[in-house]
Design a protein that fits this description.
The protein is α+β, with helices and mostly antiparallel strands and 305 residues long. Helices cover 70% and strands 8% of the residues. Strands 2-3-1-4 form a four-stranded antiparallel sheet.
Length: 305
């Protein structure tokens, strides 16, 4: 097979169907950009989980005098010193517990004032209305239920709260957005495949005379099909390159510069450039193989060789 002939045929085919080729490039670029974005979103969620789950605490809140009057869990009165010592001792004996920190009413009041000092309620609160608590760091954040089962309903315990539940709601929202992006990506991918098939059909129809002559002189099926397949592959590869550019530019402007989220949101551990760069070869390979395979199967049906 003469490479010069194949390359010239690819150029002719791309020029003849310039509008459809452009549509293929755009649809492939958008679908693969969404594909890469969804992969990066998954990486980001996993990175945030690993970062935040390692920092979450389980809090065992103890009954105070105010709770004894209003909360059924504290019907037996405020927590006593013996009850606090017993709770602390039991916590330290549990194999799932890493560390235990005690927060007094004064410390709780101070933290509340620091975080919600502008709230109208803050001026009416006093330290004795705040709850003492034990802040527990678990060796495995998934083992929260062990603490809840052991201390929920216990004398002197008002409630057991797990910060992981709050994070789970956030990560659930992020995962939902990720699946929505994947659904749009799948739709765009179907559109891209339909455009590729139609582009190949139009190109084959417009060159039916040339292919007929090639068939008569004994050209092989692969020799006839190769220019059409490579046309689709080239268009797809250009689209894949554009998609890679989208991802690199988005990472640069959203996280590092422009919006500069890495500086404005210091509490979030963002994915690094290595996560982006490792996705680019996959996107380029997909952009090359997907159109080529679509063209191959389309030619088997519409170009009888």
């Amino acid at each position: 097979m003469r490479a010069q002939f194949v390359l010239s045929e690819i150029g002719v085919g791309l020029r003849r169907n310039l509008t459809m080729t452009f549509a293929v490039i755009v649809s492939v670029a958008l679908s693969l950009a969404l594909f890469g974005g969804s992969l990066l979103m998954s990486d980001q969620v996993n990175t945030m989980k690993g970062y935040w789950y390692d920092k979450v605490n389980v809090s065992v809140f103890l009954c105070n005098k105010s709770d004894a009057e209003s909360d059924p869990n504290c019907a037996k009165g405020a927590v006593t010193k013996d009850q606090k010592d017993q709770i602390l001792g039991d916590l330290k004996k549990m194999s799932v517990v890493d560390t235990v920190n005690y927060e007094s009413q004064d410390a709780a009041y101070k933290h509340y004032k620091e975080q919600f000092g502008d709230s109208p309620l803050a001026s009416s609160l006093t330290p004795d209305q705040m709850q003492e608590s034990y802040r527990i760091k678990l060796k495995d954040p998934e083992k929260y239920q062990v603490i809840a089962t052991a201390f929920d309903g216990r004398d002197g315990v008002q409630s057991v709260q797990d910060q992981k539940g709050i994070l789970d709601n956030l990560f659930g929202l992020l995962n939902g957005m990720n699946w929505a992006a994947r659904a749009v990506m799948a739709l765009m991918l179907v559109v891209a495949l339909m455009l590729i098939v139609n582009t190949v059909r139009v190109s084959a129809f417009s060159r039916r005379r040339e292919t007929g002559i090639m068939r008569l002189v004994g050209a092989s099926g692969f020799y006839i099909q190769a220019p059409f397949i490579m046309e689709a592959a080239v268009a797809g590869l250009i689209g894949g390159g554009v998609a890679c550019g989208f991802l690199v530019v988005a990472r640069y402007f959203i996280i590092d510069h422009g919006l500069a989220l890495s500086e404005k949101l210091n509490l979030i551990n963002f994915i690094g450039w290595d996560a982006v760069l490792t996705k680019l070869p996959l996107i380029l390979a997909t952009s090359l193989l997907m159109p080529a395979l679509a063209a191959f199967f389309a030619l088997r049906k519409y170009l009888k060789v």
